[in-house]
Predict the structure of Ribosomal protein hs6-type (S12 l30 l7a).
Amino acid sequence: MTPNQACLNLLGLSRRARKQIAGEGLTLAAIRNQSAKLVFIASDAGPTTAKKFHDKAQSYDVPVIDTFTKAELSAASGNQRTVIAITDRGFARKMVAIMTK
């Protein structure tokens, strides 16, 4: 299994465990109140959206993964979303470890 596939599998698991927030407004609020431990931004997101979330995540010291397309994120999470936040520290730590190998 490739690292990308392993990460997408964990993304689906985090949704079933209810440790995920999907959507721009909710994700932005989660970053601000520091409940977001990791943020996924679709690689084909609009430049304004991508910049807004990269900047906000950087200012709150939240790691960002922007490797996957909207279609890949949607298939893994079951939601048609461009931005997804992971709220569980364990899931976030494992996903970052997989993607940085």
The mean pLDDT is 94. The domain at 3-100 is CATH 3.30.1330.30 (60s Ribosomal Protein L30; Chain: A;). The two ends are 13 Å apart (CA to CA). Residues 3-16 form the longest helix (14 residues).
